[in-house]
Structure formats: C-alpha cells, structure tokens
Design goal:
This protein is mainly alpha-helical and about 140 residues long. Helix content is about 80%, strand content about 0%.
C-alpha cells in the first residue's frame, strides 16, 4: 500500500472486524459447547464458570506465549507488555462490550456489575503493576 494511510486504515478496520467475527464463530461452534458441558458436569454456577473456565480459555494463549518468549533476550519486556496489554483489553473493552451487549439480549437478564468489583480489580491491577515495576527496578 506504499504507506498510504487512507487505504491502510480502512483495510485494517475491516480486517479487525472480520477477525472478531471469525473468532466469535469459532467460539460459538467449538468452545461454548465444551464449556457448557464442563459447567454442567462440575455443577458450577454461571459466575464460577465465567471466572474460571472462560478466564482460563482466554488467558491460555497469553501464558503459553509468555513462557515461549521468556527464552529470548527481549522476552521479559515482551511478556510484561503482552500480558498487561491483554489484561487491560479484557478489563476495559471486553467487559464493557459484554455488559452493553447483555442489555440487548431478549431472553437473558442483563449483566449488572457491582462497583466494588470494579474497584477491587482496579486496585489489584495497579498493585500488580507496581509489583512488576519494583521487581524490574530491583533486577
């Protein structure tokens, strides 16, 4: 595209939308059934299934990438950036879109999140960030 931003930006936006649509289709086709089966088999509530199984499925790729990248010289910086970036994306974008999307579903109750939950997660995230910075400064 020879550095033409007027062509590149719409192409990137279309590509991102298509990627998310494909991922949604894959999740609905393959992962959702497995998670529903495990949830029913273990007798988990919806909240517990969301906290454990979906979080595990979401974070597994990031953890594997972090383990593989830690072998290289720049692996630590990549790990910190990738894991914190993924966490921020899930805590902000994915959570807000899920809450807003739940209001539009006719056969389900909307998701209501307690303010204390957000504050707890925010404090934990800031604490973890400060801990990583301290470890980096300490060496």
């Amino acid at each position: 595209m020879n550095g033409n931003l007027f062509i590149l930006i719409p192409f990137i936006v279309i590509a991102i939308v298509l990627i998310f649509k494909m991922i949604c289709g894959i999740v609905e086709e393959y992962i959702e059934g497995g998670l529903n089966y495990i949830t029913k088999f273990l007798g988990l509530s919806e909240a517990m299934a969301g906290i454990t199984l979906i979080a595990l499925a979401n974070g597994a790729g990031d953890v594997v990438t972090a383990v593989v990248a830690s072998g290289g010289a720049d692996g630590v910086a990549y790990n910190i950036g990738a894991l914190f970036g993924a966490g921020l994306f899930v805590c902000s974008i994915v959570m807000s879109l899920t809450i807003m999307g739940s209001k539009e579903m006719k056969d389900k109750k909307p998701i209501i999140v307690d303010k204390n939950t957000i504050y707890r997660d925010l404090v934990f995230y800031i604490g973890a960030t400060l801990f990583v910075i301290l470890l980096g400064a300490w060496g």
